[in-house]
Design goal:
The structure holds two protein chains of two kinds.
Chain A: E1 5-10, H1 16-22, H2 26-29, E2 36-40, E3 53-57, H3 63-75, E4 78-82, H4 83-88, H5 100-108, E5 133-135, H6 142-154, H7 165-172, H8 196-199, H9 216-222, H10 230-238
Parallel strand pairs in A: 1-2, 1-3, 3-4, 4-5
Chain B: E1 3-7, H1 8-21, E2 23-30, E3 33-38, E4 64-71, E5 75-78, E6 85-90, H2 92-106, H3 112-120, E7 121-126, H4 137-140, E8 151-156, E9 159-164, H5 167-173, E10 181-182, H6 185-201, H7 214-221, H8 226-231, H9 239-242, E11 250-256, E12 262-269, H10 290-309, H11 319-323, H12 331-341, H13 357-361, E13 391-400, E14 405-412, E15 425-430, E16 434-439, E17 449-455, H14 459-465, E18 472-479, E19 493-499, H15 503-515, E20 523-529, H16 538-546, E21 550-556, E22 566-567, E23 584-589, H17 592-604, E24 612-615, E25 631-632, E26 635-636, E27 643-645, H18 646-649
Parallel strand pairs in B: 2-6, 6-7, 7-8, 19-20, 19-23, 20-21, 21-22, 23-24
Antiparallel strand pairs in B: 1-9, 1-10, 2-3, 4-5, 4-12, 8-9, 11-12, 13-14, 13-18, 14-17, 15-16, 15-18, 24-27, 25-26
Helix pairs in contact in B: 7-10
The chains are: A alpha/beta, B alpha/beta.
Bound molecules: iron/sulfur cluster (2 copies) and FE2/S2 (inorganic) cluster.
Chain lengths: 243, 656
């Protein structure tokens, strides 16, 4: 079997997801023998322009980025969106809550007017091009990333859960944050992280995005039961732009 | 069997001895809740717990367990690992839940993965000291138990009574320290008192419907809008399933190791409340709406399992009530509401004389009327085998017959004949990709080969399409019911109506009939396809057309090329099947949408419901009545089906 060539690209994001790949555990490093990494700014210097699998991290915020992404798409047989910024805009989309100039000034201060800091509406990768697979999360889970790549190399569609994080809490016997009176967005959020936050004693922050059939209406109605307001729920949902 | 009394200190001493001997999983406190976990010291034990977050059955039927190891191109090996262990602190309602699981996993085909753990488990039950706020076990007959444990502990003030319920328990009790004495008559009388009190104590939620009436009440409420209304608040999170002591459904998944050469097949606890639980490979979801799934959970526990096994699959622990963020999972609230909405179900009872005092106190206090009284039906050592272990088969040949469908012939490596009857199915595994059900398209044969025609729609079918001649697959089966060509269909005039891929299983019947021509009357085949080029088995069709006594009626939804035949759904050609007599039997097989129309036409032509046979597709995961994925009301498509008489399905709204 010829090794698939893999290229990794980044757009607007913190590069934390790529860092997760670098941190892959030894066991999973075997995986890297199954592919040829031909382009990766973060992990190597040698670059190539021919690849089978493109892994894209970050959101699209400028016209030139959209253009670059389109050309990546044209060359890739399989395109993977890596991490929340790429899969659904992630924290970058928080900016939409504010007027752009104000947001820019808050972040960059006086430098805000410099041209390379100009950006437009934030878009997830799939708002610009077709995406074949998603690796959700902020940051991504290295094991899940490896699982997705493994599946693709093996010729199997990666199985990403389409059920709430609560499933993974209950499978592990993690005591629900609602029992402690916290507003958790797990019931609305796609599982696959093994309930990472609840298992560490935190509520779910929703980094893997809203489920396709998320029952947001139910969540609003349920707030009353816990003496919470829908504002509190919405504030929690805003972080990963699942509102 | 002995019954002893121990001081608390003697009990702790005894538990520490057990810990030195075996793994003891006991109730402990964790983050303001109670959980079962490996006990390091008797001092961590909390026999005063109200309820544990997850039920103890998770140590018999774990959330995830490896069933099989495989090596690509080499084969499969069962993985049955289990060591003796003690479950300590099990409340009566959970003892009952475990007996129910025993029944499900040992009836019919014994599940070795579950049963080996079960045989290794010693259950030390304890009577409830503190009731949990959501319990209604007192109404369910599960507040106390007389069977199903190896040892039962009951606290009486500062002392404990320990009664052995089995040889295993008896052996453990020999470990108690010197000075422990037999319980006196007075102790036993006081224990009776505890049991009586516990029945009342375990009625924290007031249930107004006797569990024996649940099935009838559910039947009357099937079309009630309440299911959908309640489910509007449902997150489809499966929480209510996954904390339940009697939820037994599972999914099966293959994992490949990082080397892409070896892997394991595991099962994971599944939840019927989660979207896609009943979705078949083609995409159709038999329970696509939240309300359907919400209703299914209650029906499975309150009607389908009782129908099949004779017990209500709820023990009143109240865990689902606590687990549901939306507070819609509580069975007490649901049944009380159903009762209010359907008073007619029990209206006739008002006329019966009120129960006397004596009868009232006889309200269910024990498990014996409603629940399995025996543990498992034990199989002899030699009869035990891993029902999930596939046998190897080799791809003899395969050829694409349309752009999406491929014909496959396999032969079993053991050399045995598959031994199927027309209409049955097998589970085919492609290592690393998974396992899926497929119907057999060849007639029964004496040699070791069998044929299938498979459409490429999902992971397993895509993997099949990539196989080369000589490649190995795994096979389990044949499973399920068949078209009764050996009895009910003998000497009958047959009308076969097939739509789309529905031709695949019925081809097995057709070929059988053609090779036993003298055993059957006229054969009429109505076959509908989307387009002429998508028709399957064109060579066979040509041959059927020439056979004496055979009429082939074909139709396509959309014409193309030089098609001169009929255009329209398969019902278009039904008028041509000729007169229906008492000697006619129909076989119908096709996609879900086809059935309704074909059946109503056949009935209109005067065909009785029990002269029509059909084959149903479901998302079978086990093929053996365990995984719960193929449930159609009280039926299992894998056991009672896939071939069913239409008369069996009348009134079953989820069937078609
Ligand atoms: S902690 Fe959050 S994710 Fe976990 S079960 Fe509770 S609501 Fe669901
Ligand atoms: S009923 Fe409650 S616990 Fe069950 S799936 Fe729905 S929201 Fe989850
Ligand atoms: S119960 Fe598992 S397939 Fe029928």
């Amino acid at each position: 079997m010829e090794k698939p060539r893999v290229a990794i690209f980044d757009f607007a994001g913190c590069e934390g997801c790529q860092l997760q790949i670098i941190n892959l555990e030894e066991e999973i490093l075997v995986l890297l023998q199954l592919v040829d990494v031909v382009e990766w700014r973060e992990g190597m210097s040698h670059q190539s322009s021919s690849y089978d699998i493109a892994i894209v991290e970050g959101s699209i915020t400028r016209p030139e980025d959209a253009e670059r992404l389109r050309s990546i798409r044209r060359q890739a047989k399989w395109l993977i969106a890596l991490g929340s910024c790429a899969t659904h805009g992630g924290v970058n989309k928080l900016r939409h809550l504010l007027d752009f100039d104000i947001a820019a000034e808050q972040v960059y201060g006086e430098a805000a007017s410099q041209t390379h800091l100009q950006s437009e509406h934030v878009r997830a990768i799939n708002e610009v091009v077709d995406v074949d697979s998603y690796v959700f999360g902020c940051p991504i889970d290295a094991r899940e990333f490896a699982k997705v790549v493994k599946a693709i190399v093996f010729g199997k569609r990666p199985e990403i859960p389409e059920y709430p994080v609560c499933v993974e809490c209950k499978l592990q016997g993690i005591i629900c944050r609602y029992e402690y009176g916290e507003v958790c967005v797990g019931p609305l959020t796609r599982a696959g992280c093994d309930a990472r936050c609840p298992s560490a004693g935190f509520r779910c922050f929703g980094c893997r995005g809203l489920l396709e059939d998320a029952n947001v209406e139910a969540a609003r109605e349920v707030m009353d039961r816990y003496g919470k307001t829908t504002d509190e729920l919405e504030a929690r949902m805003a972080l990963f732009n699942t509102l | 069997m002995s019954t002893v009394k121990m001081e608390e200190s003697q009990l702790l001493e005894w538990v520490d001895k057990l810990i030195a001997l075996q793994r003891v999983i006991g109730v402990q406190e964790k983050q303001d809740h109670f959980v079962y976990d490996t006990l390091r010291s008797a001092s961590d034990l909390r026999l005063d717990h109200d309820v544990t977050y997850l039920p103890p059955v998770k140590f018999l039927f774990p959330q995830r367990e490896q069933l099989i190891d495989f090596k690509l191109d080499e084969g499969y090996e069962s993985r049955i690992e289990s060591e003796p262990f003690v479950l300590l602190g099990v409340h009566p309602y959970d003892v009952v839940a475990i007996s129910q699981m025993d029944a499900i996993y040992s009836t019919g085909h014994e599940d070795q993965h579950y049963m080996s753990r079960r045989r290794n488990a010693t259950i030390i039950a304890c009577d409830v000291e503190t009731p949990s706020k959501n319990t209604f076990a007192g109404y369910m007959g599960t507040a106390t138990v007389k069977e199903g444990f190896d040892v039962l502990l009951t606290r009486i003030e500062s002392e404990y009574i320990a009664e052995a319920g089995s040889e295993k328990g008896e052996a453990l009790l020999t470990l108690v320290s010197e000075g422990v004495t037999s319980a006196t008559a007075d102790h036993l009388a006081r224990r009776e008192e505890v049991w009586r009190n516990n029945v009342d104590k375990m009625k924290q939620q007031e249930l107004k419907v006797d569990p024996r009436d649940w099935p009838a009440l559910l039947q009357a409420s099937y079309s009630d809008p309440i299911w959908e209304a309640q489910a509007n608040l449902c997150f489809s999170c499966g929480g209510c399933n996954l904390v339940c002591g009697t939820c037994a459904c599972f999914d099966v998944q293959d994992q490949l190791n990082w080397d892409l050469r070896e892997g394991t097949r595991s099962r994971v606890c599944d939840a019927c409340m989660v979207r896609g639980f009943m979705q078949v490979a083609g995409g159709h979801d038999f329970q696509s709406q939240r309300g359907m799934r919400y209703r299914h959970r209650f029906f499975r526990k309150g009607s389908y399992i009782p129908e099949r096994f004779g017990f209500v699959a709820c023990t009143g622990c109240g865990r689902c009530t606590s687990a549901c963020v939306s507070d819609i999972a509580n069975p007490v609230k649901l049944y009380n509401t159903l009762l209010e909405r359907h008073p007619e179900v029990f209206a006739h009872r008002a006329e019966e004389p009120a129960p006397t005092q004596a009868q009232e106190t006889k309200a269910p206090t024990s498990v014996f009327t409603l629940y399995p009284t025996k543990g498992w039906v034990s199989k002899k050592e030699g009869e035990r085998r891993d029902i999930y272990l596939p046998e190897l088969a080799t791809l003899v040949r395969s050829n694409p017959i349309t752009p999406t469908e491929t014909f496959y012939q396999f032969s079993l490596d053991s050399g045995r004949a598959l031994g199927h009857e027309p209409g049955q199915f097998v589970m085919i595994s492609v290592m690393g990709y998974g396992e899926a059900p497929f119907s057999i398209t060849s007639p029964p044969r004496d040699d070791d080969t069998f044929d299938m025609v498979i459409r490429k729609v999902g992971t397993v079918t895509t993997a099949l399409a990539n196989l080369q001649r000589g490649d190995k697959v795994g096979v389990r089966g044949p499973f399920g019911t068949a078209f009764p060509v050996y009895d009910e269909l003998l000497h009958k005039d047959l009308v076969i109506v097939a739509g789309g891929l529905g031709i695949v299983p019925v081809r097995s019947v057709i070929l059988y009939v053609l090779s036993h021509r003298e055993d059957f009357g006229r054969l009429t085949i109505a076959y509908g396809m989307r387009t002429p080029s998508e028709r399957l088995f064109v060579d066979d069709l040509r041959r059927f057309r020439r056979e004496p006594g055979v009429t082939l009626l074909e139709t396509v939804d959309r014409t193309e090329g030089r098609w001169t035949g009929s255009v329209g759904p398969v019902t278009t050609v039904l008028p041509e099947i000729g007169p229906v007599t008492s000697n006619t039997r129909a076989i119908v097989c096709g996609p879900p949408v086809m059935y309704r129309f074909v059946l109503s036409d056949l009935l209109a032509m005067g065909m009785p419901e029990d002269h029509i046979f059909l084959s149903l597709e479901r998302r079978m995961k086990c093929g053996l009545g365990k995984c719960g994925h193929c449930q159609i009301h009280g039926l299992y498509a894998c056991q009672d089906g896939p071939v069913l008489k239409y008369s069996q399905l009348v009134g079953l709204q989820e069937a078609l």
